[in-house]
Amino acid sequence: MNDSQFDTLIVGSGLAGLSCAFELAEQGQRVHIIEAAPFAGGRTSNWSDAGMEVESGFHKFIGFYEALPNLLRRARIKPNSMLTWEKTFEIRLPDGETAGEFGIAPLKSPIKTITGAFTNNDIISPADKASLMPFVAEGLKLLSENPMELDAYSVAEFARKHGVKDEALRHVLGPLTSGVLFLPPEDYSALVFFGLFAPGVPKFYKMQIGGFNGGMTDVMITPLLAALEKRGCRISLNTPAEGLSLEDDRVTGVSLQEGGTLRAANVVIATEISAAKRLLQPPFGGEAWYQPLGELPTMPDVTIQLELSEPLLPQDRVTFGPGTCIGSFSEQSRTTFPHVPGRVSMILSPPDEFIDMPDDLVFERVCADADKLGLDLRAKAKDYRVIRRPDHFYSVRPGSEKFRPEQRTPVPGLALAGDYTRQPMFATMEGAVLSGRKAAEAVLGRELS
């Protein structure tokens, strides 16, 4: 198959690939996106798994994101119509009784934001709250002065160095690492921790968390695909790539597992990191530019998603469960999955413990820890799925940052996109969109305004 009528071929239909495609199409390029799965969206997708609607992962939309909402607005998608904004989050301790509500929307819910910070002393005492201040101040200072030094520390190491008390580490920092990117503070880079939260400091007034009003493919990805098709893009699902085609050291296309080759003047690899390595290693594994990417470690992620006979909690909002395997979770029966009486998605931490565990044992472990949080999960559970990905995320452990590649490569005709590539928002939806824009700039050979 010859596809030379397209200027750019993008492998992968996650937010990185769609962002790149949108920018190139806006500049008049003819773009073809291929996707191995039968649905688009990558790590921001939903599908039916043997009759149960599931999502690729537990995602929330952060109010201070800029690149993602800007992309959506340009595609004529209104973020407020696809999201329900949450004004509070909850922390539950594993004693079966203690829970605290914290406000996260200074403009929409100022009283709860203020009172949440100054109360909840049974979750974290005033002295423990105070112990966080030097940690935050020094972390933000080092982030601006020498960010790579921060990547030498885990969050726990940096916290202890600056006098954070154990209760603050367990009840505050633990949820903010394991509940966001899966890993406990002992394994989570201080650079990633401060790098993700620093953009929210000057935009604190914009802080809020959005839950999706439906599956992410349905409410975000499908409208993006429609906007791309209006701009002349072609999207081919069920089209897995086999390898890269090269002529005279230039990438000229992609060979397909089903046979044939798609050709284009430029190829953008916009898959998750493990798939990118599988495509790039055979032709470039011996080249110096590829070596850091080849050494960039990956990490697993595991969620359990349950349909319930009734809602588990009275609100659809983020809840953290420090001291348990439940890093974070949310009731979703009023927002993302309103077709069932009750629905929760839970991030499991640390993921290495669950990646090979049989589903029934995962369910038993989660139910036991839910009991500790005062949640009667077992009695309400009607069905569940364990969603595992062994190596789709680059590792946010200390020391990984130096291995992340740029979007521009020294190989003519080849660019990279994906949150593992170098951009400041790490492994987030915002980071994926930023990487796609940078990949488009690499293809065009100039910065976009």
From TrEMBL:
Lineage top rank: taxon: Bacteria
MF-aspect GO terms: oxidoreductase activity
A Pfam family recorded for this sequence: Amino_oxidase
Cross-referenced InterPro entries: Amino_oxidase, FAD/NAD-bd_sf, Zeta_carotene_desat/Oxidored
Domain Amine oxidase, residue spans: 15-444
Protein name: FAD-dependent oxidoreductase
